[in-house]
Design brief:
A: Cytochrome Bc1 Complex, Chain C; globular; B: alpha+beta; Rieske Iron-sulfur Protein; 9 strands; about 25% helix; transmembrane (chain A); electron transport (chain A)
Protein backbone atom coordinates (compact mmCIF):
# COMPACT_ATOMS: atom_id res chain seq x y z
CA UNK A 1 0.00 0.00 0.00
CA UNK A 2 2.89 2.29 -0.56
CA UNK A 3 5.41 3.12 -3.23
CA UNK A 4 8.26 0.59 -3.56
CA UNK A 5 10.84 3.27 -2.72
CA UNK A 6 9.25 4.03 0.65
CA UNK A 7 11.71 3.95 3.54
CA UNK A 8 11.54 0.84 5.66
CA UNK A 9 10.91 0.80 9.35
CA UNK A 10 14.03 -0.57 11.01
CA UNK A 11 14.03 -0.02 14.77
CA UNK A 12 17.52 0.10 16.25
CA UNK A 13 16.72 0.01 19.93
CA UNK A 14 16.22 -3.54 21.28
CA UNK A 15 13.06 -2.47 23.10
CA UNK A 16 11.53 -1.14 19.88
CA UNK A 17 12.56 -4.31 18.07
CA UNK A 18 10.88 -6.31 20.83
CA UNK A 19 7.68 -4.23 20.51
CA UNK A 20 7.77 -4.48 16.71
CA UNK A 21 7.74 -8.29 16.93
CA UNK A 22 4.83 -8.39 19.35
CA UNK A 23 2.63 -5.49 18.19
CA UNK A 24 3.90 -3.52 15.19
CA UNK A 25 2.03 -0.35 16.09
CA UNK A 26 5.06 1.96 15.75
CA UNK A 27 5.60 0.41 12.31
CA UNK A 28 2.00 1.24 11.36
CA UNK A 29 2.46 4.87 12.45
CA UNK A 30 5.82 5.09 10.67
CA UNK A 31 4.25 3.84 7.43
CA UNK A 32 1.14 5.99 7.75
CA UNK A 33 2.37 9.40 8.87
CA UNK A 34 6.11 8.93 9.25
CA UNK A 35 9.09 8.68 6.96
CA UNK A 36 7.66 5.46 5.52
CA UNK A 37 4.89 7.27 3.61
CA UNK A 38 6.10 8.99 0.44
CA UNK A 39 4.00 12.01 -0.54
CA UNK A 40 4.05 14.14 -3.72
CA UNK A 41 6.65 16.87 -3.25
CA UNK A 42 4.43 19.67 -4.58
CA UNK A 43 1.50 19.76 -2.13
CA UNK A 44 0.34 23.30 -1.37
CA UNK A 45 -1.28 24.65 1.79
CA UNK A 46 -4.73 23.45 0.72
CA UNK A 47 -3.47 19.98 1.60
CA UNK A 48 -3.28 21.02 5.27
CA UNK A 49 -6.98 20.87 5.93
CA UNK A 50 -7.35 17.13 6.35
CA UNK A 51 -4.91 17.16 9.24
CA UNK A 52 -6.59 20.29 10.63
CA UNK A 53 -9.98 18.56 10.53
CA UNK A 54 -8.47 15.68 12.50
CA UNK A 55 -7.13 18.14 15.09
CA UNK A 56 -10.55 19.82 15.27
CA UNK A 57 -12.14 16.43 16.00
CA UNK A 58 -9.66 15.83 18.81
CA UNK A 59 -10.45 19.28 20.28
CA UNK A 60 -14.18 18.46 20.13
CA UNK A 61 -13.76 15.06 21.77
CA UNK A 62 -11.54 16.38 24.59
CA UNK A 63 -13.70 19.42 25.40
CA UNK A 64 -16.88 17.39 24.89
CA UNK A 65 -15.92 14.57 27.23
CA UNK A 66 -15.00 17.18 29.85
CA UNK A 67 -18.32 19.01 29.44
CA UNK A 68 -20.20 15.72 29.79
CA UNK A 69 -18.69 15.51 33.28
CA UNK A 70 -20.66 18.61 34.26
CA UNK A 71 -23.82 18.18 32.20
CA UNK A 72 -27.20 16.77 33.22
CA UNK A 73 -29.10 15.27 30.28
CA UNK A 74 -32.55 15.98 31.67
CA UNK A 75 -34.93 18.66 30.50
CA UNK A 76 -35.38 19.94 34.05
CA UNK A 77 -31.70 20.65 34.65
CA UNK A 78 -29.97 20.68 31.24
CA UNK A 79 -30.14 24.46 30.80
CA UNK A 80 -28.99 25.24 34.32
CA UNK A 81 -26.13 22.71 34.28
CA UNK A 82 -24.80 24.37 31.12
CA UNK A 83 -25.00 27.77 32.84
CA UNK A 84 -23.32 26.18 35.86
CA UNK A 85 -20.53 24.96 33.61
CA UNK A 86 -20.15 28.52 32.34
CA UNK A 87 -20.17 30.25 35.74
CA UNK A 88 -19.17 27.83 38.48
CA UNK A 89 -17.05 25.04 37.02
CA UNK A 90 -13.33 25.85 36.98
CA UNK A 91 -12.44 26.74 33.37
CA UNK A 92 -15.91 25.54 32.40
CA UNK A 93 -16.48 28.64 30.26
CA UNK A 94 -13.31 27.81 28.35
CA UNK A 95 -14.42 24.24 27.69
CA UNK A 96 -17.85 25.29 26.48
CA UNK A 97 -16.68 28.17 24.29
CA UNK A 98 -13.94 25.95 22.86
CA UNK A 99 -16.52 23.25 22.11
CA UNK A 100 -19.05 25.63 20.54
CA UNK A 101 -16.49 27.50 18.45
CA UNK A 102 -14.59 24.28 17.83
CA UNK A 103 -17.65 22.98 15.99
CA UNK A 104 -17.60 26.04 13.73
CA UNK A 105 -13.89 25.70 13.06
CA UNK A 106 -14.33 21.99 12.37
CA UNK A 107 -16.83 22.89 9.65
CA UNK A 108 -14.63 25.70 8.29
CA UNK A 109 -11.68 23.37 7.75
CA UNK A 110 -13.90 20.57 6.45
CA UNK A 111 -15.55 22.89 3.91
CA UNK A 112 -12.11 24.05 2.75
CA UNK A 113 -11.04 20.39 2.57
CA UNK A 114 -14.12 19.55 0.45
CA UNK A 115 -13.64 22.50 -1.91
CA UNK A 116 -9.96 21.57 -2.23
CA UNK A 117 -11.13 18.15 -3.38
CA UNK A 118 -13.66 19.69 -5.77
CA UNK A 119 -11.14 22.01 -7.40
CA UNK A 120 -8.24 19.60 -7.69
CA UNK A 121 -10.41 16.65 -8.75
CA UNK A 122 -9.39 14.59 -5.74
CA UNK A 123 -12.63 12.60 -6.07
CA UNK A 124 -11.60 11.07 -9.38
CA UNK A 125 -10.29 7.57 -9.97
CA UNK A 126 -8.52 5.95 -8.25
CA UNK A 127 -9.63 7.93 -5.16
CA UNK A 128 -13.45 7.59 -5.40
CA UNK A 129 -13.64 5.64 -2.15
CA UNK A 130 -11.74 8.39 -0.32
CA UNK A 131 -14.34 10.89 -1.53
CA UNK A 132 -17.32 8.67 -0.63
CA UNK A 133 -16.00 8.01 2.87
CA UNK A 134 -15.37 11.74 3.28
CA UNK A 135 -19.03 12.42 2.49
CA UNK A 136 -20.07 9.81 5.07
CA UNK A 137 -17.94 11.68 7.62
CA UNK A 138 -19.60 14.94 6.55
CA UNK A 139 -23.10 13.51 7.07
CA UNK A 140 -22.12 12.12 10.48
CA UNK A 141 -20.70 15.53 11.40
CA UNK A 142 -23.96 17.23 10.48
CA UNK A 143 -25.99 14.80 12.59
CA UNK A 144 -23.59 15.18 15.51
CA UNK A 145 -23.59 18.97 15.31
CA UNK A 146 -27.37 19.14 15.16
CA UNK A 147 -27.82 16.90 18.21
CA UNK A 148 -25.14 18.77 20.12
CA UNK A 149 -26.91 22.05 19.49
CA UNK A 150 -30.05 20.68 21.17
CA UNK A 151 -28.26 19.79 24.41
CA UNK A 152 -28.09 23.27 26.09
CA UNK A 153 -31.92 23.18 25.91
CA UNK A 154 -32.24 26.86 25.06
CA UNK A 155 -34.90 28.32 22.80
CA UNK A 156 -32.91 27.74 19.59
CA UNK A 157 -32.09 24.20 20.74
CA UNK A 158 -35.73 23.38 21.28
CA UNK A 159 -37.14 25.02 18.18
CA UNK A 160 -34.25 23.81 16.03
CA UNK A 161 -35.03 20.27 17.14
CA UNK A 162 -38.69 20.83 16.38
CA UNK A 163 -38.10 22.21 12.89
CA UNK A 164 -35.48 19.62 11.91
CA UNK A 165 -37.42 16.61 13.15
CA UNK A 166 -40.47 18.23 11.53
CA UNK A 167 -38.68 17.70 8.20
CA UNK A 168 -39.24 13.98 8.59
CA UNK A 169 -42.91 14.72 9.25
CA UNK A 170 -43.15 15.97 5.66
CA UNK A 171 -42.64 12.44 4.32
CA UNK A 172 -46.02 11.02 3.33
CA UNK A 173 -47.63 8.23 5.43
CA UNK A 174 -44.58 7.15 7.47
CA UNK A 175 -43.39 10.70 8.20
CA UNK A 176 -45.26 11.35 11.41
CA UNK A 177 -44.58 7.97 13.04
CA UNK A 178 -40.89 8.49 12.19
CA UNK A 179 -40.93 11.95 13.75
CA UNK A 180 -42.56 10.63 16.93
CA UNK A 181 -40.10 7.74 17.01
CA UNK A 182 -37.11 10.08 16.64
CA UNK A 183 -38.35 12.35 19.41
CA UNK A 184 -39.78 9.72 21.73
CA UNK A 185 -42.84 11.93 22.09
CA UNK A 186 -45.07 14.29 20.16
CA UNK A 187 -42.73 17.25 20.59
CA UNK A 188 -39.11 17.57 21.77
CA UNK A 189 -38.92 16.59 25.44
CA UNK A 190 -36.86 14.78 28.01
CA UNK A 191 -36.75 11.57 25.94
CA UNK A 192 -35.42 13.48 22.91
CA UNK A 193 -32.81 15.33 24.96
CA UNK A 194 -31.55 12.15 26.55
CA UNK A 195 -31.16 10.18 23.33
CA UNK A 196 -29.54 13.13 21.57
CA UNK A 197 -27.00 13.28 24.37
CA UNK A 198 -26.28 9.56 24.11
CA UNK A 199 -25.85 9.75 20.32
CA UNK A 200 -23.92 13.01 20.45
CA UNK A 201 -21.41 11.24 22.67
CA UNK A 202 -21.26 8.16 20.44
CA UNK A 203 -21.08 9.62 16.93
CA UNK A 204 -17.69 11.40 17.20
CA UNK A 205 -16.10 8.02 17.84
CA UNK A 206 -17.90 6.61 14.81
CA UNK A 207 -16.49 9.58 12.88
CA UNK A 208 -13.02 8.71 14.17
CA UNK A 209 -13.53 5.16 12.87
CA UNK A 210 -14.61 6.34 9.42
CA UNK A 211 -11.63 8.72 9.36
CA UNK A 212 -9.36 5.69 9.76
CA UNK A 213 -11.06 4.09 6.74
CA UNK A 214 -10.78 7.44 4.87
CA UNK A 215 -7.02 7.54 5.48
CA UNK A 216 -6.62 3.86 4.73
CA UNK A 217 -8.39 4.32 1.38
CA UNK A 218 -6.23 7.39 0.71
CA UNK A 219 -2.97 5.59 1.38
CA UNK A 220 -3.61 2.92 -1.24
CA UNK A 221 -3.15 5.24 -4.26
CA UNK A 222 -1.40 7.90 -2.12
CA UNK A 223 -2.26 11.61 -1.94
CA UNK A 224 -3.24 13.53 -5.04
CA UNK A 225 -1.39 16.78 -5.77
CA UNK A 226 -1.99 20.22 -7.30
CA UNK A 227 -1.03 19.14 -10.83
CA UNK A 228 -3.25 16.07 -10.71
CA UNK A 229 -0.45 14.12 -12.44
CA UNK A 230 0.22 10.81 -10.72
CA UNK A 231 3.53 10.04 -9.00
CA UNK A 232 5.92 8.33 -11.41
CA UNK A 233 9.06 7.75 -9.39
CA UNK A 234 11.06 8.53 -6.26
CA UNK A 235 11.98 11.99 -7.61
CA UNK A 236 8.30 12.99 -7.37
CA UNK A 237 7.89 12.32 -3.65
CA UNK A 238 9.30 13.27 -0.27
CA UNK A 239 8.74 11.36 2.99
CA UNK A 240 5.72 12.54 4.99
CA UNK A 241 7.97 13.05 7.99
CA UNK A 242 9.66 15.51 8.36
CA UNK A 243 8.49 17.39 5.25
CA UNK A 244 4.73 17.39 5.71
CA UNK A 245 4.67 17.05 9.48
CA UNK A 246 6.53 20.38 9.41
CA UNK A 247 4.24 21.93 6.81
CA UNK A 248 1.12 20.71 8.65
CA UNK A 249 2.63 21.96 11.90
CA UNK A 250 2.90 25.44 10.45
CA UNK A 251 -0.70 25.29 9.22
CA UNK A 252 -1.79 24.06 12.63
CA UNK A 253 -0.15 27.10 14.23
CA UNK A 254 -2.09 29.44 11.95
CA UNK A 255 -5.30 27.50 12.64
CA UNK A 256 -4.82 27.69 16.39
CA UNK A 257 -4.15 31.45 16.25
CA UNK A 258 -7.44 31.99 14.38
CA UNK A 259 -9.27 29.64 16.75
CA UNK A 260 -7.88 31.31 19.87
CA UNK A 261 -8.74 34.77 18.51
CA UNK A 262 -12.36 33.76 18.06
CA UNK A 263 -12.49 31.84 21.31
CA UNK A 264 -11.12 34.62 23.51
CA UNK A 265 -12.38 37.75 21.77
CA UNK A 266 -15.70 36.86 20.11
CA UNK A 267 -16.91 33.57 21.60
CA UNK A 268 -20.58 34.32 20.97
CA UNK A 269 -20.19 35.87 17.53
CA UNK A 270 -21.41 32.75 15.72
CA UNK A 271 -24.10 31.86 18.28
CA UNK A 272 -27.66 33.08 18.79
CA UNK A 273 -28.67 35.13 21.85
CA UNK A 274 -32.00 33.25 21.92
CA UNK A 275 -30.19 30.14 23.06
CA UNK A 276 -29.46 31.82 26.40
CA UNK A 277 -33.22 31.68 27.09
CA UNK A 278 -34.42 28.34 28.44
CA UNK A 279 -36.53 26.20 26.09
CA UNK A 280 -40.20 27.20 26.14
CA UNK A 281 -42.62 25.04 24.12
CA UNK A 282 -45.27 27.76 24.29
CA UNK A 283 -43.29 30.58 22.76
CA UNK A 284 -41.39 30.65 19.48
CA UNK A 285 -38.34 32.80 18.82
CA UNK A 286 -39.14 35.34 16.11
CA UNK A 287 -36.41 34.13 13.77
CA UNK A 288 -35.46 30.44 13.82
CA UNK A 289 -32.17 29.80 12.05
CA UNK A 290 -29.72 26.93 12.32
CA UNK A 291 -26.00 27.41 12.88
CA UNK A 292 -24.14 29.05 10.00
CA UNK A 293 -22.69 25.80 8.66
CA UNK A 294 -26.18 24.57 7.77
CA UNK A 295 -27.29 27.77 6.05
CA UNK A 296 -26.71 26.71 2.42
CA UNK A 297 -28.78 23.57 2.98
CA UNK A 298 -31.44 25.47 4.93
CA UNK A 299 -31.74 27.87 1.98
CA UNK A 300 -32.34 24.94 -0.39
CA UNK A 301 -34.96 23.58 2.03
CA UNK A 302 -36.86 26.85 2.07
CA UNK A 303 -36.48 27.53 -1.66
CA UNK A 304 -39.52 25.39 -2.45
CA UNK A 305 -42.67 27.42 -1.91
CA UNK A 306 -45.20 25.95 -4.37
CA UNK A 307 -46.62 22.44 -4.66
CA UNK A 308 -45.63 20.48 -7.75
CA UNK A 309 -48.35 18.10 -9.00
CA UNK A 310 -49.16 16.03 -5.89
CA UNK A 311 -45.95 16.72 -4.03
CA UNK A 312 -46.33 19.38 -1.33
CA UNK A 313 -43.78 22.21 -1.27
CA UNK A 314 -42.53 21.21 2.18
CA UNK A 315 -41.69 17.66 1.02
CA UNK A 316 -39.99 19.01 -2.11
CA UNK A 317 -37.79 21.19 0.06
CA UNK A 318 -36.85 18.25 2.28
CA UNK A 319 -36.05 16.03 -0.70
CA UNK A 320 -33.99 18.77 -2.34
CA UNK A 321 -32.01 19.36 0.82
CA UNK A 322 -31.06 15.70 1.20
CA UNK A 323 -30.49 15.42 -2.56
CA UNK A 324 -28.02 18.31 -2.47
CA UNK A 325 -25.66 16.15 -0.41
CA UNK A 326 -26.51 12.74 -1.86
CA UNK A 327 -25.75 14.22 -5.28
CA UNK A 328 -22.11 14.57 -4.26
CA UNK A 329 -21.87 10.77 -3.89
CA UNK A 330 -22.26 10.54 -7.68
CA UNK A 331 -19.72 13.25 -8.45
CA UNK A 332 -16.87 10.88 -9.44
CA UNK A 333 -19.10 9.60 -12.23
CA UNK A 334 -20.65 12.93 -13.23
CA UNK A 335 -17.32 14.60 -13.94
CA UNK A 336 -15.79 12.34 -16.56
CA UNK A 337 -12.87 14.55 -17.56
CA UNK A 338 -9.61 12.60 -17.20
CA UNK A 339 -7.81 15.77 -16.09
CA UNK A 340 -7.95 16.17 -12.32
CA UNK A 341 -6.59 19.57 -11.45
CA UNK A 342 -8.70 22.68 -12.09
CA UNK A 343 -5.46 24.50 -12.99
CA UNK A 344 -5.44 22.74 -16.37
CA UNK A 345 -9.19 23.05 -17.01
CA UNK A 346 -9.93 26.64 -18.13
CA UNK A 347 -13.73 26.26 -18.45
CA UNK A 348 -14.11 24.15 -15.30
CA UNK A 349 -12.14 26.76 -13.38
CA UNK A 350 -14.61 29.53 -14.26
CA UNK A 351 -17.61 27.44 -13.30
CA UNK A 352 -15.90 26.37 -10.08
CA UNK A 353 -15.69 30.04 -9.08
CA UNK A 354 -19.38 30.44 -9.95
CA UNK A 355 -20.16 27.43 -7.73
CA UNK A 356 -18.23 29.02 -4.85
CA UNK A 357 -20.20 32.25 -5.24
CA UNK A 358 -23.44 30.28 -5.56
CA UNK A 359 -22.84 28.39 -2.31
CA UNK A 360 -21.94 31.66 -0.58
CA UNK A 361 -25.22 33.20 -1.79
CA UNK A 362 -27.15 30.15 -0.59
CA UNK A 363 -25.42 30.48 2.77
CA UNK A 364 -26.37 34.14 3.04
CA UNK A 365 -30.00 33.45 2.13
CA UNK A 366 -30.20 30.53 4.57
CA UNK A 367 -29.35 32.87 7.42
CA UNK A 368 -31.73 35.59 6.24
CA UNK A 369 -35.44 35.72 7.14
CA UNK A 370 -37.80 33.73 4.89
CA UNK A 371 -39.04 36.67 2.85
CA UNK A 372 -38.44 38.34 -0.49
CA UNK A 373 -36.02 38.90 -2.11
CA UNK A 374 -34.18 36.09 -0.29
CA UNK A 375 -36.66 33.38 -1.27
CA UNK A 376 -36.32 34.15 -4.96
CA UNK A 377 -32.54 34.45 -4.75
CA UNK A 378 -32.30 31.09 -2.99
CA UNK A 379 -34.52 29.52 -5.64
CA UNK A 380 -32.18 30.67 -8.41
CA UNK A 381 -29.08 29.72 -6.43
CA UNK A 382 -30.50 26.28 -5.54
CA UNK A 383 -31.35 25.68 -9.20
CA UNK A 384 -27.79 26.54 -10.19
CA UNK A 385 -26.36 24.26 -7.50
CA UNK A 386 -28.12 21.25 -8.98
CA UNK A 387 -27.49 22.36 -12.56
CA UNK A 388 -23.78 22.70 -11.83
CA UNK A 389 -23.36 19.07 -10.87
CA UNK A 390 -25.98 17.48 -13.12
CA UNK A 391 -25.62 19.53 -16.32
CA UNK A 392 -22.61 21.85 -16.32
CA UNK A 393 -19.96 19.40 -15.08
CA UNK A 394 -20.89 16.53 -17.45
CA UNK A 395 -21.01 18.97 -20.39
CA UNK A 396 -17.68 20.60 -19.54
CA UNK A 397 -16.06 17.18 -19.21
CA UNK A 398 -17.20 16.40 -22.71
CA UNK A 399 -16.41 19.62 -24.57
CA UNK A 400 -13.60 21.31 -22.69
CA UNK A 401 -10.11 21.32 -24.16
CA UNK A 402 -7.72 21.05 -21.23
CA UNK A 403 -4.35 22.80 -21.15
CA UNK A 404 -1.27 20.62 -21.66
CA UNK A 405 -0.32 18.74 -18.51
CA UNK A 406 3.24 18.67 -17.23
CA UNK A 407 5.06 15.42 -17.90
CA UNK A 408 5.54 14.75 -14.23
CA UNK A 409 5.32 16.35 -10.80
CA UNK A 410 9.06 17.00 -10.83
CA UNK A 411 8.85 18.65 -14.25
CA UNK A 412 6.14 21.04 -13.04
CA UNK A 413 8.12 21.88 -9.90
CA UNK A 414 11.28 22.55 -11.92
CA UNK A 415 9.37 24.61 -14.44
CA UNK A 416 8.17 26.79 -11.62
CA UNK A 417 11.30 27.08 -9.46
CA UNK A 418 14.16 25.31 -11.24
CA UNK A 419 14.89 27.62 -14.12
CA UNK A 420 15.53 30.61 -11.91
CA UNK A 421 17.93 28.80 -9.66
CA UNK A 422 19.73 25.64 -10.66
CA UNK A 423 20.67 24.76 -7.09
CA UNK A 424 17.07 24.62 -5.94
CA UNK A 425 16.40 22.30 -8.82
CA UNK A 426 19.13 19.98 -7.66
CA UNK A 427 17.88 19.68 -4.08
CA UNK A 428 14.27 20.73 -4.54
CA UNK A 429 12.61 19.80 -1.30
CA UNK A 430 15.05 21.48 1.07
CA UNK B 1 -30.10 -30.62 -1.48
CA UNK B 2 -27.35 -32.06 0.62
CA UNK B 3 -27.84 -32.56 4.32
CA UNK B 4 -25.07 -30.07 5.04
CA UNK B 5 -26.75 -27.35 2.94
CA UNK B 6 -29.99 -27.87 4.81
CA UNK B 7 -28.25 -27.52 8.17
CA UNK B 8 -26.44 -24.43 6.93
CA UNK B 9 -29.57 -22.70 5.63
CA UNK B 10 -31.60 -23.68 8.70
CA UNK B 11 -28.93 -22.41 11.09
CA UNK B 12 -28.39 -19.08 9.31
CA UNK B 13 -32.14 -18.64 8.86
CA UNK B 14 -32.78 -19.29 12.54
CA UNK B 15 -30.02 -16.86 13.53
CA UNK B 16 -31.59 -14.29 11.19
CA UNK B 17 -34.98 -14.63 12.83
CA UNK B 18 -33.29 -14.28 16.20
CA UNK B 19 -31.46 -11.15 15.06
CA UNK B 20 -34.68 -9.55 13.83
CA UNK B 21 -36.40 -10.45 17.10
CA UNK B 22 -33.64 -8.67 18.99
CA UNK B 23 -33.73 -5.60 16.74
CA UNK B 24 -37.46 -5.01 17.31
CA UNK B 25 -37.16 -3.96 20.99
CA UNK B 26 -33.96 -2.04 20.21
CA UNK B 27 -35.91 0.13 17.79
CA UNK B 28 -39.19 0.18 19.66
CA UNK B 29 -37.60 1.57 22.83
CA UNK B 30 -37.30 4.90 21.00
CA UNK B 31 -41.08 5.23 20.63
CA UNK B 32 -42.93 7.33 23.23
CA UNK B 33 -42.79 5.67 26.64
CA UNK B 34 -45.84 4.92 28.78
CA UNK B 35 -45.46 8.08 30.84
CA UNK B 36 -45.35 10.20 27.70
CA UNK B 37 -48.37 8.39 26.27
CA UNK B 38 -50.20 8.85 29.58
CA UNK B 39 -50.21 12.57 28.76
CA UNK B 40 -51.51 11.86 25.26
CA UNK B 41 -54.99 13.04 26.22
CA UNK B 42 -55.86 16.21 28.09
CA UNK B 43 -59.05 17.25 29.89
CA UNK B 44 -60.06 20.90 29.65
CA UNK B 45 -62.62 22.59 31.89
CA UNK B 46 -64.58 25.07 29.79
CA UNK B 47 -66.80 26.53 32.50
CA UNK B 48 -64.66 29.60 33.20
CA UNK B 49 -64.09 30.63 29.59
CA UNK B 50 -66.37 33.53 28.69
CA UNK B 51 -67.49 34.25 25.10
CA UNK B 52 -64.66 36.10 23.33
CA UNK B 53 -62.04 34.57 25.59
CA UNK B 54 -59.45 31.96 24.75
CA UNK B 55 -57.05 29.89 26.84
CA UNK B 56 -53.70 28.41 26.01
CA UNK B 57 -53.01 24.98 27.47
CA UNK B 58 -50.92 22.01 26.34
CA UNK B 59 -51.78 18.81 24.55
CA UNK B 60 -49.04 16.28 23.81
CA UNK B 61 -46.46 18.83 24.99
CA UNK B 62 -47.59 21.31 22.37
CA UNK B 63 -49.72 24.43 22.77
CA UNK B 64 -53.48 23.98 22.50
CA UNK B 65 -55.89 26.91 21.98
CA UNK B 66 -59.44 26.68 23.31
CA UNK B 67 -61.60 29.60 22.21
CA UNK B 68 -65.17 30.48 23.16
CA UNK B 69 -66.43 32.21 20.02
CA UNK B 70 -68.88 35.10 20.21
CA UNK B 71 -71.99 35.05 18.03
CA UNK B 72 -70.40 37.73 15.88
CA UNK B 73 -67.29 35.61 15.32
CA UNK B 74 -69.41 32.59 14.42
CA UNK B 75 -71.38 34.71 11.94
CA UNK B 76 -68.15 36.02 10.41
CA UNK B 77 -66.82 32.50 9.98
CA UNK B 78 -70.07 31.21 8.47
CA UNK B 79 -70.31 34.15 6.07
CA UNK B 80 -67.21 32.96 4.15
CA UNK B 81 -67.73 30.58 1.24
CA UNK B 82 -65.52 27.68 2.37
CA UNK B 83 -64.82 26.53 -1.20
CA UNK B 84 -62.85 29.74 -1.85
CA UNK B 85 -60.38 28.98 0.94
CA UNK B 86 -56.88 27.55 0.69
CA UNK B 87 -57.85 24.69 2.99
CA UNK B 88 -61.62 24.49 2.51
CA UNK B 89 -63.47 23.71 5.76
CA UNK B 90 -66.57 25.18 7.39
CA UNK B 91 -66.74 26.11 11.05
CA UNK B 92 -69.27 23.29 11.40
CA UNK B 93 -66.62 20.79 10.24
CA UNK B 94 -64.05 22.25 12.59
CA UNK B 95 -66.14 21.96 15.73
CA UNK B 96 -67.78 19.02 17.50
CA UNK B 97 -71.34 18.05 18.34
CA UNK B 98 -72.99 21.15 16.90
CA UNK B 99 -71.36 23.30 19.61
CA UNK B 100 -69.99 25.83 17.16
CA UNK B 101 -68.93 28.24 19.89
CA UNK B 102 -66.12 25.94 21.09
CA UNK B 103 -63.14 26.19 18.73
CA UNK B 104 -60.34 23.85 19.83
CA UNK B 105 -57.13 23.97 17.79
CA UNK B 106 -53.44 23.25 18.11
CA UNK B 107 -51.39 26.39 18.69
CA UNK B 108 -48.88 25.31 16.07
CA UNK B 109 -48.62 27.28 12.85
CA UNK B 110 -48.84 24.90 9.90
CA UNK B 111 -46.02 26.72 8.12
CA UNK B 112 -42.93 26.08 10.25
CA UNK B 113 -44.41 25.23 13.64
CA UNK B 114 -44.29 28.59 15.44
CA UNK B 115 -46.87 29.45 18.11
CA UNK B 116 -49.36 31.99 16.70
CA UNK B 117 -50.52 34.99 18.72
CA UNK B 118 -54.17 35.66 19.57
CA UNK B 119 -55.03 33.35 22.44
CA UNK B 120 -53.75 35.76 25.09
CA UNK B 121 -55.48 38.95 26.21
CA UNK B 122 -54.57 41.90 23.98
CA UNK B 123 -52.46 39.92 21.52
CA UNK B 124 -52.43 40.71 17.82
CA UNK B 125 -55.14 38.58 16.19
CA UNK B 126 -54.28 39.52 12.61
CA UNK B 127 -56.51 41.06 9.97
CA UNK B 128 -59.03 38.19 10.00
CA UNK B 129 -59.60 38.38 13.74
CA UNK B 130 -58.42 34.88 14.65
CA UNK B 131 -54.75 34.11 15.12
CA UNK B 132 -51.63 35.73 13.74
CA UNK B 133 -48.24 34.04 13.42
CA UNK B 134 -45.44 36.54 14.06
CA UNK B 135 -42.77 34.40 12.39
CA UNK B 136 -43.81 34.73 8.77
CA UNK B 137 -47.10 36.60 8.96
CA UNK B 138 -49.74 33.89 8.49
CA UNK B 139 -53.22 35.16 9.38
CA UNK B 140 -56.00 32.84 10.53
CA UNK B 141 -59.69 33.78 10.69
CA UNK B 142 -62.17 33.35 13.55
CA UNK B 143 -62.50 29.64 12.67
CA UNK B 144 -58.64 29.43 12.72
CA UNK B 145 -58.57 28.84 8.98
CA UNK B 146 -55.57 30.06 6.99
CA UNK B 147 -56.47 33.19 5.06
CA UNK B 148 -53.21 34.98 4.33
CA UNK B 149 -49.48 34.24 4.49
CA UNK B 150 -47.32 31.19 3.78
CA UNK B 151 -49.03 28.52 5.95
CA UNK B 152 -50.55 25.75 3.80
CA UNK B 153 -53.25 24.44 6.19
CA UNK B 154 -55.76 25.58 8.78
CA UNK B 155 -54.70 25.26 12.43
CA UNK B 156 -55.09 21.58 13.21
CA UNK B 157 -58.22 20.56 15.12
CA UNK B 158 -57.26 17.64 17.37
CA UNK B 159 -59.68 14.81 18.02
CA UNK B 160 -61.79 15.73 21.05
CA UNK B 161 -65.19 15.03 22.60
CA UNK B 162 -67.44 16.61 25.20
CA UNK B 163 -67.47 14.70 28.48
CA UNK B 164 -70.11 17.11 29.85
CA UNK B 165 -71.52 20.47 28.77
CA UNK B 166 -68.52 22.28 30.23
CA UNK B 167 -65.64 19.84 29.80
CA UNK B 168 -63.82 18.28 26.87
CA UNK B 169 -61.39 15.42 26.51
CA UNK B 170 -58.74 16.08 23.87
CA UNK B 171 -56.93 13.12 22.29
Amino acid sequence: MSFPWAEHYAPKHPLMQWVDEKLPLPRLVYNAIGAGYPVPRNLNYFWNFGVLAGVALVIQIVTGVIMAMHYGANDLVAFSTVEQTMRDVNAGWLMRYAHANGASFFFIVVYLHIFRGLFFGSYKAPREMVWLLGLVIFLLMMATAFMGYVLPWGQMSYWGAKVITGLFGAIPVVGEPIQTWLLGGFAPGNASLNRFFSLHFLLPFVIAGVIILHIWALHIPGSSNPTGVEVQGPQDTVPFHPYYTAKDGFGLGVFLICFATMLFFAPNFLGHPDNYIEANPLSTPAHIVPEWYFWPFYAILRAFTVDFFFVPAKLLGVLAMFASILLLFFLPWLDTSPVRSGHYRPVFKKFFIILLIDVAILGYCGGAPAEEPYVMISQIAAAYYFAHFLIVLPLISRFEKPLPLPGSITESVLAKYGKADGEIAAVPAE
Amino acid sequence: MRRRDFINIAAVGFAGVGAVAVVVPLIDQMNPSADVLALASTEVDLSAIQPGQAIKTTFRAQPLFVRHLTDKEIAEADKVDASTLRDPQTLEERTVGGKKQWLVTMGVCTHLGCVPLGAGEGENRGEYGGYFCPCHGSSYDTAARIRKGPAPKNLEVPKFSFTSDTAILVG
